[in-house]
Give the backbone structure.
Amino acid sequence: MLNIPESLFVTESGVPPATNLKVRITELVGTLAFTVGDLSNHEGSLVTVSMNMDKPSKAGRIVVLRIGHRLQRDMRVTTHVCLTARALGAAGVVICDVNDRQLVETVDRVTAEFGGSFTIQTGKPWRSAIMEWKKSGGKVVHLTAYGIPLPKIIDQVRRSKDDKLVVVGAEKVPGELFRLADWNVAVTNQPISEVSALGVFLDWFYNHRRLEAKFAGARLQIVPTEHGKRVLGN
């Protein structure tokens, strides 16, 4: 039994819980959820204590580097790379070599509506971005079908406390990238979408904790429902 002060808890009705508590703590990224039983007329009430999600994790901050983005042709896929990065725990994304104002506006709008502090930068040369990252002490993860299988390398990547730049390509990436990367990681050794590869990598890196994360400052919040759609703030 955990010794947690009653002052931490507030039930939906505002009634403080009784002293005989059954406490189950489920750690979500940014939220502690407590299931409180044995309450008078409130058995099983769910109460939450929010935490700051924007603090760097012990495994370092992740930023995604997108190589080979082509205006118009890759707009939809690159947007999905950004949305996947944001939803699953990355702090930001850098789109290399091409300035894309429309993409920046789209991603910034999603962040403003759904919360968090995700950043996006476009136009930076890919080699300069990687060299600057490494010079500052960060590590580079290159997602490629030719790398070491994810299950065999993920623990080593997690153990590193350094910030990590996760590189995904839109077309054939420069051979130099394989030498610059600290880890060449294969989600699968089969051809796969960069969006899928990024999503699987981030999910494994964070041990699935990001799947139910709460985002601070959201104007819109999707409420899980068995059927239909429900959005708060809409």
Q: What stands out?
A: The CA atoms of residues 145 and 189 lie 4 Å apart.
